[in-house]
Structures are given as structure tokens and as C-alpha cells.
Amino acid sequence: MARTESNEFAVGKKAPDFTLINTVDDSFVSLQEARGEKGTVIMFICNHCPFVIHVNSALVKMANEYQQKGINFIAISSNDVANYPQDSPELMQELAKTENFPFPYLYDETQEVAKAYDAACTPDFYVFDTDLKAVYHGQLDDSRPGNGKPVTGKDLRLSLDYLLENKSPIENPKPSLGCGIKWK
Fold this sequence. Notes:
By secondary structure, the protein is α+β, with helices and mostly antiparallel strands. The protein has a single domain (4-78, 89-180), classed as Glutaredoxin (3-Layer(aba) Sandwich), CATH 3.40.30. Helix content is 27%, strand content 23%. The strands form 2 sheets. Strands 3-2-6-5-4-8-9 form a 7-stranded mixed β-sheet. A 3-stranded antiparallel β-sheet has the order 1-10-7. The longest helix has 18 residues, at 50-67. The radius of gyration is 15 Å and the shape is globular. The two termini are 19 Å apart.
């Protein structure tokens, strides 16, 4: 299991726009349509990565909680499905239904969106304010597969709470850690 840290994404940087296919219902979803009233979480995830599998249920729980507060979640998979067929759109749809994803699960076939965000790993978390300016890019929490620490989502939750309370962004967030994105 290769361990890759997320790249830097500066606070205040504008979220790159996109329109991608939602594997849940085969509709096209744009960032403008899916963004939240008070904030937006963009997550680069995939089906097969053990780091993502480790946190899927926490992501569903967190999205259900924070979407009621005006923060929408958007999941994107950018992996090369020719070499990683377990990340195909059909299997993405299956996973989204099995896990009851309360958010769109978008397929970035060209990998242009991942490149625009300088995404490096799965999972990779970005939080944007109402103006789609970055307020957080970092880890969910300190839990990793096999390290015995519980999945709490404390780092991402803290960033969302700060956003909702109009507090300054977290300084020096820890980078996310996971499987490297599978580039073509």
C-alpha cells in the first residue's frame, strides 16, 4: 500500500470549476450546481484504496450531518480505470448505492479536474467557503488503516465548524495521506 501525501493548496485559492458525470444517476453535475449554501467539501476518493475504504462510513455520516447545516459534499474519482477497473463508473455507482452516499460521486475520466486541484492521493479533502475560496486542505483525522486510532473526522470537522462560525482557517493543517492517484 503506497502512501502519498496531499499537495499544498493555498487558503484563499478559488476552486477550479468543473462539470462531470455523476455515476450515481448518470447525470452531469457542475460545481456551481452542487456547491453548498455555506460551504463545499470536495473529496478525491476511489473504490479500491484501503485509506478510503477505512473512512467511507465516516464520510457518509459527516456529509449527512453537515449538509443539514448548508455544507455540501462532492466526491470525485480520477483514477485510471484501464489499469484499475475496480474504480470504473459502474462500480462507483454500485459503491455509492451500497454505502448510501448522500453526495454525488463524480467520474473525472480525463483527470483534468484532479490536475486542476493538484490532487495527489485518495482521500484528498478540500473545503471551500460560500465564494468557493479554499479554507482547508488536509486530512480527515489521524486514523489510518491498521494504526488503531478511531475514525473521528476531527480535523475536517474542525475546519467545517470554523467555517460555519466565521473563524479564521486552521493554520498548518496536516496533509491527507493515502494511495496515490492512478494517473494515465
